[in-house]
Amino acid sequence: MVSQPGPQYLSKEKYQQLQEELNKLVTITIPLIAKRIDDAKQMGDLSENAEYQTAREEMAWAQSRIKEIGYILQQAQIIEDGGLTHDVVQIGSKIIVETNGKKKEYTIVGAQEADPLTGKISNESPLGVAFLGKKGGDRIHVQVPAGNLEYTIVGIE
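^ thats the sequence. predicted structure below, dont judge the formating
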């Protein structure tokens, strides 16, 4: 789900993935579900027809996803690699930080692409918000569920 109105920061790849997903939903998924609903209607009593109920639920999900993707694409702001500066952390920056004697690498991305397990953190997350606008050498204190952590920005790419 889209959390807040406003720009949806996306890489070119994610924008393309969403366009492809939208196209597939509109041209393949919806027509297939519509056919299943029509076929189920031909079977008679809809109140006890599990296939009909399942297909209707899938149709509602698909229509909702189409609206969500449409909103994201309308609000999309593409993150351009060429426009990044290596002086200040911004959306699209790859940063190396040190915390508790360990170095970690993060990429600041829009909420749609966040994947903390691969080091992609959302610009809207507490960590992302804390890093944005900071420079190499800056120390940042961030309140996270595990407690108050201190990070030092070692490098910005």
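The first helix runs from residue 12 to 41.
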